[in-house]
Amino acid sequence: MEMLRIAQTDETPEIIFDKARKVFEVSGRSLPEDSVEFYTPVFQWLNQYAEEPNGTTEFVFKLEYTNTASSKMVQDILTVLEKIMGATITWYYHTDDEDMEAMGHELAELVEIPFTFKTY
Q1: 58: exposed, middle or buried (C-beta count within 10 Å: 0-12, 13-18, 19+)?
Q2: Of residues 49, 65, 63, the one with CA closest to residue 1
Q3: Distance CA 34, CA 46 (A)
Q4: Which of 8, 46, 84, 106 could form a disulfide with 28 if both were Cys (CB 3.0 to 4.6 A apart)?
């Protein structure tokens, strides 16, 4: 399976999904003008990965900011991840960023995936 890598911009996060290296990370700011268009390749990759996932899959989120549309996309990503046996989430947030911490806790309550919270 080919790696998915989307470079970070001022308005979009860096996305690295690499099954072979076991790297699954979304980091940066997410406020694209068209969230659905931006995240379409992410969902395509995840749905393909869900058919034959690794034994364990740790998804890392290091989001600094999301707009409302992107928050919905993150929630939809987590819904796809619920289908993947052995999936876990590590949710990073800046120590003084109460909004991103709260977002992580809210999302954790919506899905049946183990969450770990870490500051940086």
Answers
A1: middle
A2: 49
A3: 19
A4: 8
Q: Which residues, including other chains, have CB under 8 Å from residue 4's CB and lie 6 or more apart? A: 15, 16, 17, 18, 41, 42, 45
In the chain, domain spans: 4-119
Query: Which amino acid is it at 71?
Result: S
Contact in structure between 26 and 20 (CB atoms under 8 Å):
no
Integer angstrom CA distances of residue 119 from 27, 91, 96, 103: 14, 8, 9, 14
- pLDDT tens digits for 80-109? 999 999 999 999 999 999 999 999 999 999
Give dist(CA 92, CA 101) in Å, integer: 8
